[in-house]
C-alpha cells in the first residue's frame, strides 16, 4: 500500500529513521564477473534474520522502467527481476527466512482502486496514441517529412494482475530462480525460502503481515523485520523512539501504555490515506493532517477513558470524539487551504516566466484535467512550454469548500442528495469501514469528519466465511475492454458485445472529477461499481468455455517453501515425498528456526538431485538441483482467536539512538550519535584532503538493477559445501522498513 506523501512526511519529521545502505559490488577479473559472496558478514555491520519482499514493487520497475529502455521481451523482464532480487539480497543477506509475496486476488474493497488505476492507464494510453497520430498528420499536412512509424509491441502493464499468463509464467520463473540460488549461492544455503505467488489470495503486504502475525502467535518465533523496496533503510526501532517522545502523556485517568498508543497512531494514519477508503476531505498529509490528529488525540484522550484500539478492534465511541474534534476545525482547514493556494500562485507564475522554465515539460494540462464526460473530446496533453498555461482556465470547483455552505454543496454535487438528509449521511459513514472479502465502500467520496455522529452502534459484525474472487473473475472486475486480450475469448466478448448484460461495467470513456485537485491523476475516476451478483451470473454462461490450462490458472494456489539440501528440514520433506502422504504434516519447528505451519505435497515439486528446466531460454538448466520445495500453510487458530499486539516475552529492545532529552544535565560527556546499526562502530576521522576526494568521487547508488549481469555467459557462481561463516550481532528484535528514497 502506497500512501502519497506519507514517506516524505515521515522522513522529514523523523530524519534519524533513515540509514543509507552499504552495498558491496561484484567485481570483474579477466572478463569474468565474480559475484558478491553473500555468505560473508553483512557490510552494514548487522546480521539480519528475515527478509520480506513485496514483489510487485520489484516487478513493475523491472517490466516498464522509467529511467532506461524497457526490456525487449518477457524473458528479459524475468532476468531483470532476478537481478533486482539478487541486488536486494546482497545488501540484506538474510540468514533464516526469505519471503517473496506477489499480489494475489485482492479483497473487493481494493478491487475498486485497482479498477480505477487500470481504466486510467488504458484511457491515457489510447489518448496518447491518438495524440501522436494527430500530431503526425498535422506535420505531414504542412509538408513536413517524418520517417515511417515503427510498429512496436506495447507492453500492457495491466498483465501484472493475478490470472494472466504473464503472472503464471512469473511464478514458474521464480521457482526456477529459487532452485538455482539454493543450488549455487552459498549465502542461500541456510535459508527457508517462501514463495506466495499470484495464485494465493491477498495483497503482498497483507500476506507478509499475516505470515508474521501467525508465526508470532506461537510465541516461539524470533523475528527481525526487514522490508525492502529501495536502497535506504527505515529503522522502525528509531521511529518508535520518536513516537515514545511524542505520544507519552502524563496525568492520564488510566495507565499509559506506549504499545497501545502506537496502535492508535497507526489507526489514525489510515484516515489520511489507504487503498480501501477515500481519505477524509479535511485531512491532507501535506497540510499536517497527522500532526493535527496526534494533537487532537492527546487533547481528547483524557475524555475517552482509554485507547482507540485494542488488538485490532476499534472503540467507535472514542473514535467519534476524535472525529468530532476534527469536524470542529474543518471550516478553518478548508479556508486555510484556499488561502495557501492563492498565496502560492504568484510564486508559481514567477517561476514559469523564468528562462529555465521554458524547458519544463508540462505534464497534465488543465484542458486535460477537466471532468471528461462520455461525449467529451478532450485529449491527453502534449509537451508544451510552461508559459502556455497562463491562458488556460482554472479547473472549475463547484463545491468551494472554503465558502459558507460547503457541506450542502459537497453532498449535492458528489452524492446528489441534500445535506439535511441525515439517513443518507449515516449510510455513507456506516459504509466507511468494514473488513471481508466481499465488502467495499460503495461511494466515490468520503464523508466529513463532522458527520461521524452516533457511530457507536452503527457498524454490524463483519460477514464471515466470505470467499475471494477467482483470478479470472477479478480480471473481469478490474480490466477495461482494451485489456481483454488477457481473457478467454468468450469472456472478453462480455466486455465489448453491445448485447452483453454487463456491458455497462466497461465504459469506453468516463468522467474524472478533480475534486479540488489540480491534476487528473489526483482526481476521482467516476467508474460504475461492479455488481458482483450480475458479474457472476454472466460468467456462469461462459465458464464451460475454459480450457484445462485456463481452469488451472483460475484456481487458487498455495504458498510453497523451499530449502537447500544442506538445510535441516530437507530430509524431513524428502521423507514426506517418499511416504506419498496426502495428509497435512506439521513442521517440526526445531528444524526450521522456529517456523511453524503445515506441509502438503506439491504436484510438480522441485526435488534434490533432479534436473530443473529453465523457463527462460537465455538461462541455463539446472542439471542437478540441491533444492526441495513443498506446499506450505500458515499455522491455524481457533475461530475468534485474538492476535495480541504486544512485544513478545524475551524480546531484546535495540539500544536507543536518539539523544536523550536530559543529556546535557548528565555527566556522560559529549553526545556521540550512532551512525548505522552498530552502536560500537569504529569512527574514522578524515582530513581535508580526504573530504575533497569524497566530494569528487561520491554519489548515490542507482535504484536500477545492474545491467545484464545475471545471464552473461561468463557468470560463475561460487560453489561451497560448508555453511556460511557469518557472525551474528545480538539483534533479536530490530524492526524497520526499507523504503523508496
Protein architecture, described:
With 741 residues, the protein is α/β, with parallel strands linked by helices. Among the domains are: 135 residues, no CATH class; 208 residues, no CATH class. It contains 19 helices and 17 strands. The strands form five sheets. The chain has a nine-stranded mixed beta sheet. A two-stranded antiparallel ribbon has the order 1-8. The longest helix is centred in the middle third of the chain and has 37 residues. GO terms for molecular function: 5'-3' RNA exonuclease activity; RNA binding.
In short:
This protein starts with 5 loop residues before the first helix and ends with a strand. It is globular, with a radius of gyration of 28 Å.
Number-wise, the strands total 17
Overall pLDDT metric: 79
Structural class: alpha/beta
Taking Cα atoms only, what radius of gyration do you get, to the nearest Å? 28 Å
* Envelope shape: globular
What fraction, in percent, of the residue positions are helical? 25-40%
Strand order in the sheet with the most strands? 14-15-16-13-6-5-4-7-17
Low-confidence stretches: 224-229, 355-394, 698-709, 711-741
Beginning-to-end CA distance, first to last residue = 16 Å
Number of separate helices: 19
Amino acid at each position: 500500500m502506497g500512501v502519497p506523501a506519507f514517506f516524505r512526511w515521515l522522513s522529514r519529521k523523523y530524519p534519524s529513521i533513515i540509514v543509507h545502505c552499504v552495498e558491496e559490488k561484484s567485481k570483474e577479473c579477466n572478463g569474468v564477473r565474480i559475484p558478491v559472496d553473500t555468505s560473508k558478514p553483512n557490510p552494514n555491520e548487522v546480521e539480519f534474520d528475515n527478509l520480506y519482499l513485496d514483489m510487485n514493487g520489484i516487478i513493475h520497475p523491472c517490466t516498464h522502467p522509467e529511467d532506461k529502455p524497457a526490456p525487449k521481451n518477457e524473458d528479459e523482464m524475468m532476468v531483470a527481476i532476478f537481478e533486482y532480487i539478487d541486488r536486494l539480497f546482497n545488501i540484506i543477506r538474510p540468514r533464516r527466512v526469505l519471503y517473496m509475496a506477489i499480489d494475489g486476488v485482492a479483497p473487493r474493497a481494493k478491487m475498486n482502486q485497482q479498477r480505477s488505476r487500470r481504466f486510467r492507464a488504458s484511457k491515457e494510453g489510447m489518448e496518447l496514441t491518438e495524440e501522436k497520430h494527430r500530431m503526425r498528420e498535422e506535420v505531414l499536412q504542412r509538408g513536413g517529412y517524418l520517417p515511417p512509424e515503427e510498429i512496436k509491441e506495447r507492453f500492457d502493464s495491466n498483465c501484472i494482475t493475478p490470472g494472466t499468463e504473464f503472472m503464471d509464467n512469473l511464478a514458474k520463473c521464480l521457482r526456477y530462480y529459487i532452485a538455482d540460488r539454493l543450488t549455487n549461492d552459498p549465502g542461500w544455503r541456510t535459508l527457508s525460502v517462501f514463495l506466495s505467488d499470484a495464485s494465493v489470495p491477498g495483497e503482498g503486504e497483507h500476506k507478509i503481515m499475516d505470515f508474521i502475525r501467525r508465526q508470532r502467535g506461537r510465541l516461539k518465533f524470533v523475528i527481525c523485520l526487514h522490508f525492502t523496496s529501495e536502497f535506504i533503510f527505515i529503522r522502525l526501532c528509531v521511529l518508535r523512539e520518536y513516537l515514545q517522545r511524542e505520544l507519552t502523556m502524563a496525568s492520564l485517568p488510566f495507565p499509559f501504555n506506549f504499545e497501545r498508543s502506537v496502535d492508535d497512531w497507526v489507526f489514525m494514519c489510515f484516515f489520511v490515506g489507504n487503498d480501501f477508503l477515500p481519505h477524509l476531505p479535511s485531512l491532507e498529509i501535506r497540510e499536517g493532517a497527522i500532526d493535527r490528529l496526534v494533537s487532537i488525540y492527546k487533547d481528547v484522550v483524557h475524555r475517552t477513558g482509554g485507547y482507540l484500539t485494542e488488538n485490532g478492534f476499534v472503540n467507535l465511541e472514542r473514535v467519534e470524539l476524535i472525529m468530532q474534534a476534527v469536524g470542529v476545525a474543518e471550516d478553518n482547514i478548508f479556508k486555510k487551504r484556499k488561502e495557501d493556494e492563492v498565496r502560492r500562485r504568484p510564486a508559481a507564475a514567477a517561476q514559469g516566466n523564468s528562462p529555465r522554465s521554458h524547458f519544463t515539460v508540462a505534464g497534465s494540462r488543465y484542458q486535460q484535467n477537466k471532468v471528461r464526460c462520455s461525449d467529451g473530446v478532450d485529449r491527453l496533453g502534449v509537451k508544451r512550454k510552461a508559459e502556455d498555461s497562463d491562458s488556460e482556465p482554472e479547473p472549475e470547483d463547484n463545491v468551494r469548500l472554503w465558502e459558507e455552505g460547503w457541506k450542502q454543496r459537497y453532498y449535492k454535487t458528489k452524492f446528489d442528495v441534500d445535506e439535511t438528509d441525515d439517513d443518507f449521511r449515516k449510510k455513507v459513514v456506516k459504509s466507511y469501514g468494514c473488513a471481508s472479502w466481499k465488502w467495499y465502500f460503495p461511494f466515490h467520496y468520503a464523508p466529513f469528519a463532522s458527520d461521524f455522529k452516533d457511530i457507536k452502534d452503527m457498524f454490524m459484525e463483519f460477514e464471515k466465511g466470505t470467499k475471494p474472487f477467482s483470478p479470472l473473475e477479478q480480471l473481469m472486475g478490474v480490466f477495461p475492454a482494451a485489456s481483454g486480450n488477457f481473457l478467454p475469448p468468450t469472456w472478453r466478448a462480455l466486455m465489448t458485445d453491445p448485447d452483453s448484460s454487463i456491458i455497462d461495467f466497461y465504459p469506453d470513456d468516463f468522467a474524472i472529477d478533480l475534486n479540488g485537485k489540480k491534476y487528473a491523476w489526483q482526481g476521482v475516476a467516476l467508474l460504475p461499481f461492479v455488481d458482483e451478483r450480475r458479474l457472476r451470473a454472466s460468467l456462469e454462461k461462459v465458464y464451460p468455455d475454459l480450457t484445462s490450462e485456463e481452469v488451472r490458472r483460475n484456481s487458487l494456489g498455495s504458498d510453497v517453501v523451499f530449502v537447500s539440501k544442506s538445510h535441516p528440514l530437507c530430509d524431513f520433506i524428502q521423507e514426506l515425498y517418499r511416504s506419498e502422504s496426502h495428509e497435512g504434516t506439521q513442521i517440526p519447528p526445531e528444524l526450521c528456526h522456529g517456523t511453524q505451519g503445515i506441509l502438503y505435497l506439491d504436484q510438480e515439486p522441485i526435488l534434490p538431485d533432479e534436473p530443473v528446466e529453465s523457463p527462460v531460454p537465455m538461462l541455463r538448466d539446472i542439471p542437478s538441483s540441491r533444492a526441495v520445495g513443498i506446499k506450505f500453510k500458515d499455522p491455524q487458530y481457533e475461530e475468534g482467536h485474538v492476535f495480541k499486539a504486544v512485544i513478545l516475552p524475551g524480546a531484546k529492545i535495540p539500544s536507543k539512538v536518539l539523544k536523550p532529552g536530559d543529556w546535557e544535565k548528565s555527566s556522560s560527556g559529549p553526545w556521540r550519535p550512532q551512525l548505522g546499526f552498530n552502536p560500537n562502530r569504529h569512527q574514522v576521522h578524515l582530513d581535508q584532503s580526504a573530504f575533497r576526494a569524497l566530494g569528487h568521487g561520491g554519489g548515490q547508488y542507482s535504484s536500477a538493477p545492474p545491467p545484464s549481469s545475471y545471464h552473461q555467459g561468463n557468470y560463475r557462481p561460487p560453489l561451497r559445501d560448508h555453511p556460511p561463516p557469518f557472525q551474528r550481532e545480538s539483534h533479536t528484535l530490530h524492526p524497520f522498513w526499507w523504503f523508496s528514497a
